[in-house]
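INFO batch 0412 | record 1 of 1 | parsing
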Amino acid sequence: MKNTFIILLLLGFSVLKAQNIKPYQFYDKKGKEIKTEKLVKELADYDIVFFGENHNSSINHWLQLKITEALFAKKKGQLILGAEMFERDNQSQLDNYLSGKFDAKTLKDSARLWNNFATDYQPLVDFAKDKKLKFIATNVPRRYASQTAKEGLESLNKLGQKDKSYIAQLPIKVTLDTPGYPEMKKMMGDHAEGTKVMNFISAQAIKDATMAESILKNFEAGKTFIHYNGNFHSKEFGGIYWYIKQKNPNLKMAVISVFESENSDLKVPEKDYIPTDFNLIIPADMTKTY
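INFO prediction complete | emitting tokens
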């Protein structure tokens, strides 16, 4: 019976190898496969790294953790973490968790955590806690993005100083020259009102601009700041990347973008593929966390 099991197991591995099934593949901007060891070595030379994600991709989140762990070792601890999934006005709660003053339940009860926090983001936060790293809540509180979408960017001028402290310094430049924003306009359709379209884009812009400002305020020379954000926030070197570039063009920044592939060999997609510095290809049918 034992020998039969071993034979079946070996046959199973042979089938997988014959089908060339991959869970992921990284490529550089020229379309060449890059191993994770080389990827980490190259990332260590950057000031800021944007690790894009599909929010519900299990392999995407697992790779964020593993690359972060390897980068920590490569940089000998000279690392700062930050994420879109935490809003500026929850920084004190996050800090209390990192320092051990809050347990996981208290953090959950006191901060606006995403529904998939426990499965997808807590491992990163716990890594920061274990290694005594800073973890920055970079995003604008969602209420201000919602206000902007409904009432426009100018409505933020009426806020008090405390409220404004959670938003990037006003006025925020909003332009369709920013990569990704014309795509948002196109998504709204030709029949959408101009003001409504710009309010929608401005709501995205205050998120990107605020995350950019948060990163710049907390960046330290000699350290790598790795930021986890939805792929759209840094795709095509737009979003957060673009806003940082306006403020400090001398910083060395890298973007890891993510793409899904229907093919088991995970070759670079033929359509809708605009590469950045590094590009993660994952199976379209990979397990989703929600």
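INFO post-check: Strands lie at 25-28, 48-53, 79-87, 135-139, 224-230, 253-261, 278-283.
INFO record closed
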